[in-house]
Amino acid sequence: MAYVISDECISCGSCAAECPVEAISEGDSKYEINPDVCIDCGTCEATCPNDAISAE
Asked: For the chain, how many structural domains are there in total?
């Protein structure tokens, strides 16, 4: 189960910087998580200052 980023994302980039497998990249309006690369570690969720990341 991959994690997803909601519209609450403020595009700060803290999640991408902490992702150990580089599954997070900047999208058009918010950051996005590639579900094929995500290893479900939860690091991004714990790092997000806006609680915009959750398990899918």
From this structure: 1
- 16-23 long-range contacts, CB within 8 A, separation 24+: 17/47, 18/43, 18/44, 18/47, 19/43, 19/44
In a domain, 14, yes or no: yes
pTM of the model: 0.90
Summarised one tens digit per residue, pLDDT across range 14-53 is 999 999 999 999 999 999 999 999 999 999 999 999 999 9
Contacts of 15 (CB under 8 A, 6+ apart): 5, 24, 31, 44, 47, 48, 53
Q: Is residue 54 part of a domain?
A: no
